[in-house]
Amino acid sequence: MYYSSEKITDFTRTFFEKIGCSNKDANIIADVFVAAELRGIGSHGLIRISDHFELWKAGRLNTKPNMRITRETVSTAVVDGDNAPGMLAAVFSMETAINKAADAGTGWTACRNSNHFGIAGYYAMMALNHDMIGICLTNANPLVAPTFSISRLLGTNPIAVAVPAGKHPPFVADFATTPIARGKLEVAVKKGEKTLFGYVQDKDGNPTDDPDILRKDGAMLPLGGDREHGSHKGYCLGATVDIFSALLSGAGFGPFVPPSVAYLSPPAETNGKGTGHFFGAMRIDSFREADEFRAAMDLWIDTFRNAESAEGKPAVLIPGDVEREQEKINRKNGICLIPAVIDELNNIAGELDMEMRL
Amino acid sequence: MYYSSEKITDFTRTFFEKIGCSNKDANIIADVFVAAELRGIGSHGLIRISDHFELWKAGRLNTKPNMRITRETVSTAVVDGDNAPGMLAAVFSMETAINKAADAGTGWTACRNSNHFGIAGYYAMMALNHDMIGICLTNANPLVAPTFSISRLLGTNPIAVAVPAGKHPPFVADFATTPIARGKLEVAVKKGEKTLFGYVQDKDGNPTDDPDILRKDGAMLPLGGDREHGSHKGYCLGATVDIFSALLSGAGFGPFVPPSVAYLSPPAETNGKGTGHFFGAMRIDSFREADEFRAAMDLWIDTFRNAESAEGKPAVLIPGDVEREQEKINRKNGICLIPAVIDELNNIAGELDMEMRL
User: Fold this and answer.
1) A218 touches chain B (CB under 8 A)
2) Of B135, B178, B95, B144, which is closest to residue B254 (Cα–Cα)?
């Protein structure tokens, strides 16, 4: 079924109002959810509303948070998200980074005591309208084993970078530090298909193509796959994201990141508060006249877009191309939700006495 | 042959003095070269002195540079390296970032008009003695094809991050955004061995295990190897390093990075000046009491070091472990140079009327 982005926004905002968010906060959260759906990243879209509902029912999500800056310098801030939905803590933190950058040239916010925030790219892209480069990192539920290990110690810990251009649309990279996102394993399980070797390992650390291996004590591999192909570099990246997100902010690191689903218990012991994020904003004209930078970025994009493709391969993509094209299609045709998700959301709407149904 | 680090330092300093550097500058450069040798990264050590000699003879390296800050805010600076040896421009830029961070909480320097600077980790590690996290990125000669392409548009564009700990040695990640460093291909060529699939492609974009393929118009692959295993993420990383290093500073980007060897001509056209780097320094206590951070970092390191290894695999490594252990060995046993390099350096010493020989 296809829905307009307005309908999806209304539903999501109403849901978050029903579980206690202010209208303003519910609008902020809905905008992130709808951006994920429009950009074709449904794994971070309305499929996750039930997780929020279950966490809220279990008293594990604070929909009336008192988010605050607990420490700051002219270019930095630490935010305590007060266990808010991750989108609220992230928007507050990124706005703080942007405000710092306006004064100090760059701004950097480490956020603790937050939750799953959806797509990292959304927050990096907030910088674009301010003539700034945006950066966003987050840690996440531990599913990834460091090189040589069978212990799940890191999340898929994504990195997002948004860079404004001139005549061209912006460069927007947003990627997990693993070969694939976890959601793709779920899709393979649901389709009854095998996955590729190089994504996961079994509980003993052996290569496998079983997409359901995470339920059998297996682990995801860092970007690179195996040691010979540079998995230690993927591990370095995921580790850096964890350290910047959790250790600078005082969030739980690695195995101590709280689950983003209610059916998994929070870790028995922890060393920090909640999920951690790290945000950066760099004013372009701190470094160079903005017009000059934008022209150079256009030339960069032209150079890479005009690179020669191997025979039978598609054109070289600029990071952000795929999601932007998908957004055009989805704005025209509507956002497609699968029947199981529609049923789930309508059941939640019933439970909450929402008048609206999908 | 094995040499003491003092002998290697003396030789390198004397060489750079002979080609016009001040004693102070020659000492700075020698320290970076010797650090590479001590840390076991010989590919960035004395083997590259001949490249500097040839570039200098060709008038392509300025050993009496007037390096200067051309633009700044409280947290940022742009440095013009005046075509200096990369080590000088990098140390000046990283010192600038550290000074900015002391005042503003963080400091960020983009550097243009520089050259090959050796090991990125050296500059990231400069932050450690200041209770700061250090970051260093650089672009490099184009050898890497973006996903789907046969055009060599990116360098191996490394990322280095150094994070101080408490009782433990620091976390020091320093890695190319490709599955392997270029030097490893050279080693395989010299040994007459094949390399692994997943590192390089031939001129048509087909997989190959020929380590000499770069001389046959082939290309290196981004971290991830192929599209299915996430090479588009490696491409995103390499692209981000290129943009931060070149477009913020006004250096040459991607295919316009000047070669670090004299036998390759500079690009006929360019859009910026020289090689570009990007440096960051973040004062830990901008975010958290330094003691508290260091204790958390120790716990992070303990957690990862104590992860369970797969059967038959070595212990999980903390980034920096390998290089630190190698440094201990090399400080004890001396630095090993291969005969071909020793001959080359002694010939250079003769040409420059240096009294010293290796």
Assistant:
1) no
2) B144
